[in-house]
Amino acid sequence: MYVLVADDSRVMRQIVIRTLRQAGYDWQIIEATDGQEAYDMALAENPDLILSDWNMPNATGIEALQALRQAGCMIPFGFITSEGSQEMRDQAEAAGALFLIAKPFTAESVRETIDPVLA
Amino acid sequence: MIAGLVTVSREQILAITEDVFAAMIDGGSEVLVTERHEPVPAPVEPLCAWVDMTVAELGLGVRTIVRTERPAADQLTRALLMMDASEAVGQEDLVDAFGELANVVGGNVKSLLAAPAVLSLPSVAQTAPELPENQFLQDIALDWRGSVLVVSLWSLV
Predict the structure, then answer these.
(1) Looking at chain A, which residue has its C-alpha nearest residue B76?
(2) Which residue numbers delimit the Response regulatory domain (chain A) (predicted)?
(3) Do A18 and B82 make contact, defined as CB atoms within 8 angstroms?
């Protein structure tokens, strides 16, 4: 699997990547530092999955997702974000996201969410 | 109006910080952050991180501030980045890590607000911008590995 992780925090990207490894996913990871870069890298690199923060400078995660879908890009997309309200989950789902993992997360909670999507 | 928006109790703030520290900082399910019942010592080398949650249509908001001392923020950064205890913490990593801690705590507080709000990016500085006392909503002092943290909520009007 070739996976794009987007988060403006280097610390959080590192935590997400570490947690993915702990969850047993031996994936090749590329990193984006904001929503605009996530959009650009998704179109240029065509990853198998995008895992994105919501609240980022330049473009938010939801704006990146909406722009990708408008561009006809249907790469599976999930959020890993500090905000897990029902309103945001509904907004994410309406935009085409497959899941929303709220921070803080554990390797177990990440696996429980992502495994069914990969099946 | 703000009282109707913010019904976040000290117990809920404690539960959020316990979850955040256990999952992200202390490497598992062990809860090492506890409520502090003793007085909070005057900060010597303070560091604050905060995020704002605003409800534009109501013209209201809430600020979540996490305050600690620089050595504790260094320790938090090392834990988040899995650095050795002897490794020096750079300013960029410190701001990123401590800001992200406030971001995750604030994001979870935001989920408890009565109205959908927009979360800001985190800010980090020695002190948070001063707010009038009458905008104070709630706070809780916490002990973590010999250090003290204070999480406070303030209204933004």
Answers:
(1) A11
(2) 2-118
(3) yes
Task: Write down the ipTM of this complex.
Answer: 0.89
**Which among B47, B157, B54 is positioned nearest to B96, based on CA atoms?**
B47
Mean pLDDT of A32-54: 98
Listed by number, the residues of chain A in 16-55 with a beta carbon closer than 8 Å to a beta carbon of chain B are 18, 55
User: What percent of chain B is predicted at pLDDT more than 90?
Assistant: 76
Task: Decide if pLDDT at A103 tops 70.
Answer: yes
pTM over 0.95: no
Q: How far, in Å, CA of B157 to CA of B155, rounded? A: 6
pLDDT at A62: 97
Domains and CATH numbers, chain B: 2-156 (3.40.1550.10)
- Give domain A2-118's CATH number out of 3.20.20.60, 3.40.50.2300, 3.30.930.10, 3.90.180.10: 3.40.50.2300
Tokens coding B1:
């109006």
Residues 67-106 of A with CB under 8 A from B: 81-85, 87, 102-106
